[in-house]
Specification:
- The protein is an all-alpha fold and about 140 residues long.
- It has a single domain (about 25-140), classed as Globin-like (Orthogonal Bundle).
- The protein has helices spanning about 1-20, 30-35, 35-50, 65-80, 90-95, 105-120, 125-135.
- The protein is elongated.
- It starts with a helix and ends in a 10-residue tail after the last helix.
- The structure holds protoporphyrin IX containing FE.
- Protoporphyrin IX containing FE binds near residues 61 and 99.
- Protoporphyrin IX containing FE binds near residues 60, 73, 89, 101 and 105.
- Pfam families: Bac_globin (PF01152).
- Keywords: Heme, Iron, Metal-binding, Transport.
- This is Group 1 truncated hemoglobin.
Length: about 140
């Protein structure tokens, strides 16, 4: 009788742990969750093709090597979403000062990144978590 009660109590504890997450398993980074470098490289590959040919913002990228920009963008976002990367490019102020990018142009670019995230199958939640990282960068890229 006592034994049965003990088994029942233990079962409840184990169930609570499994359902409530009482173990200290480290949370997987967003970087890993979305598929790491391969996914980011695809997202920026798709976005950059569209950005470079956009009638409003395409002209900014004349003479900017696609591969260089793609690699830097991947590195930067990788670092921002918990990946094992260290962005080593120019600061955002360095690379955007003097371009006189308008706020609406910033949103055009971000929409291309968002569209590419959707195209590769990220969830809205994953998309929003990445957009949240990009949003503050606006102040280091526009009206400079
Ligand atoms: C969230 C927004 C943005 C992010 C995260 C971002 C990020 C970057 C990064 C990582 C680089 C490479 C820096 C390097 O070469 O080391 C770069 C360069 C550049 N970005 Fe952005 N950028 C953003 C918005 C924009 C916008 C809105 C435009 C134009 C419409 C723009 C135009 C450029 C150009 C032309 C370069 C090349 C500059 C050069 O090599 O001289 N960026 N950006």
């Amino acid at each position: 009788m006592i034994k049965t009660a003990r088994v029942r109590a233990l079962t409840i504890i184990i169930l609570a742990c499994v359902l409530g997450g009482c173990t200290s398993v480290p949370k997987q980074s967003l970087y890993k969750e979305i598929g790491g470098h391969k996914t980011l490289n695809t997202i920026y590959g798709v976005a950059i093709t569209r950005i470079y040919t956009d009638p409003v913002i395409g002209h900014y990228f004349k003479g900017v090597p696609k591969k260089h920009l793609r690699d830097q963008l991947v590195l930067q976002i990788c670092e921002l979403i918990g990946g094992p990367c260290e962005y080593n490019g120019k600061t955002m102020l360095e690379s955007h000062t003097g371009l006189n990018i308008k706020e609406r142009e910033f949103y055009i670019l971000v929409e291309y990144v968002q569209g590419a995230m959707r195209d590769v199958g990220l969830t809205y939640q994953q998309e929003n978590r990445i957009l949240k990282k990009l949003a503050p960068i606006k102040y280091q890229t526009v009206n400079l």
